[in-house]
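Quick one:
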Amino acid sequence: MKRTHLFLVFLICSLQCMANESAMNLEFEDLETLIKTKNKKVAATTLELRGVEKRLGYLKRSFIPTGEAWVGQEKFQTGPYETMNEPMYSLRANVNLYRGGRDYLEEVSRKAQKSGMEVQAQQVFQNELFEARELYWNLVYLREISTLYESTLKQNENNLGKAVKRINSGLSTRVDRLEFEISETQLSQDMARITVAISTTQRRISALLGLNAETQFNTISQIPHDHNDTTPTQTMDFNLFRDVRLELANKIDFEAQGKILKRWWTPNVDVYAESILYNFRERSFYTQNDQIDNALGIRLSFHFDGLQRQYDGESLIAKSLASQLRADQIKIEAEASFNTARQELALLHELIHEGEKNVEKGADYLRETQSEYARGVKNSPDVLSATLKQLEFKKRFAELRRDYAIAKAQIQSLMASNP
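Output:
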């Protein structure tokens, strides 16, 4: 018995020594801010979103004059003329007048890509936040049942002491003592597993929050439950569901890109101006001024590639229609899943009330059994059974509150519609 206690103490102390000397206070409400500021996945999607935003304004920029300039010096020999060394340059400017609406469609596409990236960033954030919340409630749960096991071990030790007294008085046999000693070993083993699970859970939380892997956290000791919680009655606009919004953004993007390709037959209309200095090799005039060309004009141009862009455009239009169908299906499935989650949450709410009653009944049952054991009416298996039954009632009550808290966090994540 003593060796079992020493082993448990040694394990717990070893795990604590592996952790940081200082522990961080962690509240459930802190998780959202910490995920936003510390999580690298969230930071990465934020940067990607900024990159997509930089591509907006394409339509306005398409009317900004474009230009090309180069200057050079060339040494050459032409026919019977002596070797010459002359400068040359070219200045060109171009202004877009018309692209058949393709510039506008490109802007539509880029805005849709930004909307899609916003949704993806929100998805990453909510997924990381939900995982952190789930781990947080698991950590609180593990610490709560760890306390329950500590209390049960003390109760078992007390029962063992009573059994030894009865044995010494000739009222019981050695079997009574063995019952409690075996129970102590099993409880200690479970306690050791819980201690390891606490350490593992803290590491996973630390990783999500971008902290040192061995960071320890001070949390609340018990999962609370609001008997007046209104989450099971919440409603949701499934048009704002993230997966639906992503598919609709893809639909707009594919449709715009498809239309751009299918407008291959529309011309480009540009105004251009250029000034070119040719050298004597290209313009056989001895005066440099006679070798300069200046031009101002308007250009109408077409491009034909064997209808390849037409077919590529039709392919993207098909993908656009597919995205709409996926959005419709996701909306149907999301509504069904959401209603199921609300129903399960309402059931857990009721089960928590029943669990609370069972804890009270278990406490009464244990007190009565211990009283009867003291009078010699009950034996050690009866006391042990009542003790373990009370432990299971309390564990079940803690599990129900944990499951409710996690299910509530999941619904809150689904309902979050803003980045």
